[in-house]
Specification:
The protein is mostly helical. It is built from 23 helices and six strands. It has a domain of 372 residues: MFS general substrate transporter like domains (Growth Hormone, Chain: A, Up-down Bundle), CATH 1.20.1250.20. The strands form three sheets. It has a two-stranded antiparallel sheet. Helix 21 runs antiparallel to helix 22.
Amino acid sequence: MDRVQKELKREQLEEETKSYASTDGVVYSFGELFKEILKQFNQGPGKTSLIPSILVGTTLCSGPISSALVNRFGCQAVTIAGSIISTICILISIKATCIETLMLTVGLGTGIGFGLIYLPAIVSVTCYFEKYRSVATGIGVCGSGFGTVIFAPLLKWCLVKFGLQGCYVMIACVVLTCVFYGILLRPVPSGETKNNNFCSPENVPLTIISPADDDNLYANKPFENTNGNGISNGARRYSIHGTLDLPQSPNLLGKNTNSQFVSQPSLVMKHPHYKSNTSLKSHHSGIMYKKDIFYTGSIKSINNISKSNGYLHAPQIVSTTPIPPKDDGKKYGCLPCSLECKDTIAEMTDFSLFRDVIFVLFILSNFLTSIGYNLPYLYLPNLLEEKNYPEAWSSYMISTIGAGNTAGRIILGYIADNPAVNRLFIYNICLSICGIACFANAFCSGLVQYLVYAFTFGFTTGAYVGLTSVITVDLLGLDKLTNAFGILLLFQGIASFVGPPIAGYLCEQMGTYDSTFYLAGLSIGLSGAMLFIVPTVQRYLENRKMKKNASPLKC
């Protein structure tokens, strides 16, 4: 790797870290603002919590739209647009006179902007790193923890010095810096793609379709993809990771042929749409056509880890740079939409994946985790105030959560890269411990005990944030990562919409903020415990599949 490429990778990593620090630092430190908003507008925690819930929920739910825009316009333009939108909405909040206005500005508007910043921060680094991707993404997302450590005391100081309106100005200035981070984001050089074995079609085996499916393939008829369980994923004409239509050739699909390679001229150079379709990436971004775009682990260890852990859905790499089918359509539904946007939205919102039992279990677990994940960030300052602890403690606790989260992402990410480690087990254990810790928080007394809780919560939730994509690949395979990740973002967003208001309502009914931590402990603990049955379900499905294949065919 030459010096220029190393410099580009370093710049991308720095910009991702700063983007995470700016956006997540604001979101995770919102508890300080929340306490002040409660006092200024004299509203209950149930209604007021709609502001941060809309902020986080919109950020996550906008994932498919952000992905489509990144695929069409690239990370640079989308990040700059998101920063400008967020800054304007935060500045408008200065003149807000009611909670409803803040729901629209701080909640909806800033959430959309943060969504446009959040997703490019992920994919801009995964495009540049392969062998050390887990280390790179681990360092990058640590910006989230650093931002939380810095922003909690900074917001506290601003509130005392300048009041709520002064805090809005400071936050707007910080978010505006993401414009400069976006400017420094670079598109992937063509040479980088060529030299990346995982990102190029070179030496990547294609799955050969059985003769029974040949007619569907060559006739361009809809066909159904099935997962390892034989469960249909629904009929689709194509996906952004679909199978390349191949010309009939007796040499290509011979009886003894197990695999072919895209590097062979008979597969690629003679394809009638090859030249026209591959030009797409040069004209636009096309970045979302990479199947591993959301994968934060080391690419080299995917197959080794899957084999050592014995997962039913071992990742099967068909092609990491599939050629999108030729399509002159410019609409998605009734909306005008480019091919890149249409492909991405269709892939990330394909709900046929719900036919997979393993995915249903995982997304239900993810939903429960997301309900409780934001509650300690939001309600811990109020809990400490309710128990008459010094005001300075709240910023200490939020900063400690940020420090623990940083340590958790690094340490757990490093451990999970070991092929001998069962990553799902680590994920389950961490969430279960996190749930127990949230329950125990109600019985804490004294600074040390609260600091221990804060660090434990931050460290264990590092597994939830850092291992979600790699667990998804372990359970479903790399082919379904983009599809699964899009649906996960949607359900995480929905859970973030409902979690804080439900907790606020419980607080109003029970008269104590301890109830919010009971809810967090129950939802997070249950989300971890329920995934312990996944290996049993996998074995059952595998045995059923083997029995079905072994049964004699009836004439």
